[in-house]
Amino acid sequence: MIDLDLAGRTVFVRGSTQGIGLAIARRLAEAGARVAVNGRTAERVQEAVAALTGAGVAAEQLIAAPGDVTTDEGLEAALGATGDVDVLVNNLGVFGAAPALEISEAEWQRYWEVNVLSAVRLIRAVLPRMKEAGWGRILNIASDSAIVTPAEMIHYGVSKTALLAVSRGFAKDAAGTGVTVNSVIAGPTYTEGVQDFVYQLVDPKLTWEQAEAEFMRLHRPQSLVQRLIRPEEIANMVVYLSSPLASATTGGALRVDGGYTDAILP
User: Fold this and answer.
1) Closest by alpha carbon to 214, among 197, 206, 151, 222?
2) What is the pLDDT of residues 60-73, one digit of tens each?
3) Residues designated catalytic
4) Which of 139, 161, 213, 244 is most exposed, with the fewest beta carbons within 10 Å of its own?
């Protein structure tokens, strides 16, 4: 029996107002969970909630949880709106192309704060109660860049590599408690932000279909699906790892990368 039922579980999806995070929120709600939609502003969160209800998600399954979780105040506000968290999905991340020697120390620090430390902050906030309850799921959305450091954004790649270690370390801390901690390695995925990124690297006069093909040919030729992944494909893995079926999967880095990473493991 395929048991992906998350009825009765409350999920906090960090950075879920668009793209991968919004797709994850929708799939988890479709699996029966109450989903806290998070973004930096109340306006963006309300827009995302409206999009989800417009897609058929029941309003009572959604919690508006605005707050910039890179700050203590924002974290307190977002989790205060959510209540007890059974499943945490750390999705928020910043990325962008920059020549390696032109990345300032301040930019390195920003990537570290947003992509790594704010994830750690959320884990520290929710993990103690999960351990006491004897059940919980923590998922950190990583990237193929964690394994194949991209020359055009090494600061991003380094931050995502660190996130794999964060997942493995906290999985050890949660050993034997019924709480699992994993990373999801997302491959090159279509979002509005990625569309802008692609046009930084290819001819902006190309149609989107042409630009996607040219980007994959020039910059991600290792991909075995030879296209950008869709957010829903990442969300499907997240739902599985959040479910009772994934009780023996912890400390891992699960790939949804279209075969981009040329390795058997992780």
Assistant:
1) 206
2) 999 999 999 999 99
3) 156
4) 244
The residue to which tokens 């370390």 are assigned: 169
Q: Name every residue whose Cβ is closer than 8 Å to that of residue 138 and which is 6 or more positions away in sequence.
A: 87, 88, 90, 123, 126, 127, 130, 167, 170, 174, 179, 180, 181, 182
C-alpha to C-alpha distance for 73 and 89, rounded to whole angstroms: 19
Tokens for 237?
Answer: 């893995």
Handedness of CA 181, 185, 48, 14 (dihedral sign): positive
Q: What share of the chain is helix, strand, coil (3-state, %, to 5)?
A: 50, 15, 35
Cα 143 to Cα 52, 115, 116, 152: the distances in Å are 25, 11, 13, 15
Q: Which CATH class is domain 10-189+229-256?
A: alpha beta
Over 140-162, what HEC string results? EEEEHHHCCCCCCCHHHHHHHHH
How many helices (H) and strands (E) the chain has is answered by: 9, 7
Q: pTM of the full predicted structure?
A: 0.94
**13: number of Cβ within 10 Å:** 33
Tokens of 70: 């890179």
Mean pLDDT over residues 241-253, rounded?
97
CA 34, CA 65: separation in Å to the nearest integer? 12
- The pairing of beta strand 34-37 with beta strand 87-90: unpaired
Cis peptide bond prior to 221, omega within 30° of 0 = no
pLDDT of the residue at 92: 86
